[in-house]
Design brief:
This protein has helices at about 1-40, 50-85, 110-130, 135-155, 160-180, 205-220, 305-310, 315-330, 335-345, 375-380, 380-385, 395-400, 410-425, 435-450, and strands at about 95, 105, 195-200, 225-230, 265-270, 280-285, 300, 355, 365-370, 390-395, 430, 460, 475-480, 495-505, 510-515, 520-525, 525-530, 530-535. By secondary structure, the protein is α/β, with parallel strands linked by helices. The longest helix is centred in the first third of the chain and has 40 residues, at about 1-40. The model is unreliable at about 1-5, about 10-15, about 20-45 and about 80-105 (pLDDT under 50). InterPro entries: Fut8_N_cat, Fut8_SH3, GT23_dom. GO terms for molecular function: alpha-(1->6)-fucosyltransferase activity.
Length: about 550
């Protein structure tokens, strides 16, 4: 990434050096030129010899200065090459042509990865200093951090139009492929290959949506139409008019417009046959019970999309999961009306920070959308921050619908969806990643904003790093070596694979070095994510 930015920087440095050289030459030769003209006007001057000696001395000094500048220039170039892993080759790696046939330049993958890595390392340094220094020092550090991030944002803005267009293009591709997969021709539904997902996992709303996400991932990888069996879904299943929509259909659109029938000529459960492709219908277990785990389960992303996605987004798996969540959670017309009514009532606007608070979380920002299942926060906590100038958007009545007795009612269902929706539309999200609701909002955030920008860093988690329940190993790669400073730390060698267990938000993460088998702490800035990819039949060329 730094290749494009550093070429410009080095060019400026070279220009600056040339200007300095010219100034030195001007300063040195100025008196020489003046003396030459004076000599013509005063030929009979008696101190010719002393002036000649002065000229020789100045010329000698000029040569010494130029030699020193050349040495400094070489030293600077060496410093840049040693400490900034840049390539002083041309900035542009590819050229595309717009409709007006003008060449459009866009940054390389290396540029994008390095730019995001600098931002990540700034935040890691901030976490470290916050844990090690006093509040008066941190005031200075906070100010410096904000300026650094602002400068990085300024650099990023140069290519924002390209990023938005590319992310939209990639999003359209994924959404269209899912729509195509889920809507075979009506006459083909009876013969289509299907995957059956039971929406009855014994857990809360966020967990059940993520269960459905996992089912869709398997469907996309195997290119089978996903059939959701939501007959026993506990949400919004209360008695009402026979004409009233219940359950899933009361808040979301069906997964298909043409194929909702799970019948087929042959059927088998996932783990009972080695030859699954020969069956028309496959029943899928929950991810925790899955055997013969395929390599396309999270945290893998489709190989066919990986190059573009890695370049465009700081957390490719979150973006990919967000695309699936966006498709699954397409609101019904009634749900859209409800969301818009509540947004108008709250006077929801941006910029805004979304805060999801459970009974153990306490944090706030200037303009806050507060989503919580603890209604007492509105009376016990909010007032104190309102007195300090904070403005809270939300409704304590929504919190009350999350109580045990009302959790599965239609009101509770609508309100938890509303919370997730508005949290995802926030500019920044503060929550705990141990919460399924928090992670759903973060995933949706990557595709919910009109700007279509990378929002992978637009969060602050009070506990865990991001994860997907039932995921495969989360690995990182050491890019810098590390020697332990105490018994809690582990060795890192460049290229070691680290199974990360979490970020301690103090500059250090905890994990297992899979090469040395050591388990302990290591500096987070010395590793990068190991992006896993797998083949998805849905994205194979036709």
């Amino acid at each position: 990434m730094l290749s494009s930015f550093s070429v410009t920087s080095v060019s400026r440095l070279i220009i600056a050096v040339v200007i300095v050289w010219l100034l030195i030459i001007f300063v040195i030769t100025g008196p020489l030129i003046g003396w030459s003209h004076n000599r013509e006007d005063s030929i009979g001057n008696a101190d010719t010899n002393s002036n000649g000696e002065m000229i020789l001395a100045r010329l000698s000094r000029a040569m010494n200065e130029l030699t020193a500048l050349k040495s400094q220039n070489e030293e600077l170039r060496s410093l840049l090459q040693n400490y900034l892993p840049i390539d002083l080759s041309p900035v542009v790696t590819s050229v595309r042509h717009s409709s007006d046939s003008k060449a459009q330049q866009f940054p390389s993958q290396e540029y994008e990865l390095t730019r995001r890595r600098i931002e990540s390392n700034v935040n890691e340094l901030w976490h470290y200093l916050r844990a090690k220094t006093n509040s008066s020092t941190m005031q200075f550090v906070n100010e410096m951090r904000h300026h650094l991030l602002y400068d990085l944002e300024t650099i990023e803005k140069r290519d924002n139009r390209w990023r938005k267009a590319e992310l939209k293009s990639l999003s359209d591709l994924v959404q269209n492929k899912m729509k195509e997969l889920q809507n075979p021709a009506k006459e083909s539904c009876g013969s289509a290959k299907k995957l059956i997902c039971q929406l009855n996992k014994g857990c809360g709303f966020g967990c059940q949506i993520h269960h459905l996400v996992y089912c869709m991932i398997v469907a996309m990888a195997t290119k089978r139409t996903l059939i959701m069996n939501a007959h026993n879904w506990r949400y919004a299943h209360s008695k009402g008019k026979s004409s009233d929509a219940k359950g899933w259909d009361s808040v979301f659109l069906p997964l298909s417009e043409t194929c909702l029938d799970e019948s087929g000529s042959s059927r088998v459960s996932w783990s009972s046959s080695p030859d699954l492709d020969s069956y028309q219908v496959i029943d899928l277990p929950i991810i925790d019970s899955m055997r013969k785990r395929p390599n396309y389960l999270p945290l893998s992303i489709p190989q066919e999309l990986s190059s573009r996605l890695i370049q465009l987004h700081g957390s490719p798996i979150v973006w990919f999961i967000g695309q699936i969540v966006s498709y699954l959670m397409r609101p019904s017309p009634e749900m859209i009306d409800y969301i818009n009514q509540q947004k108008d009532r709250f006077k929801f606007r941006t910029p805004i920070v979304g805060v999801h608070v459970r009974r153990t979380d306490k944090i706030a920002e200037r303009l806050v959308y507060l989503a919580t299942d603890d209604s007492s926060l509105w009376t016990k906590e909010v007032k104190e921050f309102e007195d300090k100038g904070y403005v809270f958007i939300g409704d304590s009545q929504i919190s009350q619908t999350a109580s045990i007795g009302r959790r599965y009612s239609i009101d509770s269902l609508r309100n938890i969806i509303l919370d997730i929706w508005l949290l995802s539309e926030s500019d920044f999200l503060v929550c705990t990643f141990s919460s399924q609701v928090c992670r759903l909002a973060y995933e949706l955030m990557q595709n919910r904003t009109d700007l279509k920008t990378d929002k992978s860093n637009a969060f602050y988690s009070l506990d865990d790093i991001y994860y997907f329940g039932g995921q495969s190993d989360h690995n990182q790669i050491a890019v810098l070596s590390h020697k332990p400073n105490n018994k809690q730390e582990i060795d890192l060698r460049i290229g070691d694979i680290i199974g990360t267990a979490g970020n301690h938000w103090n500059g250090f993460s905890k994990g297992l070095n899979r090469d040395t088998k050591q388990s302990g702490l290591y500096p987070g800035f010395k590793t990068i994510e190991k992006i896993e990819t797998a083949n998805f039949k849905l994205f194979e060329p036709n």
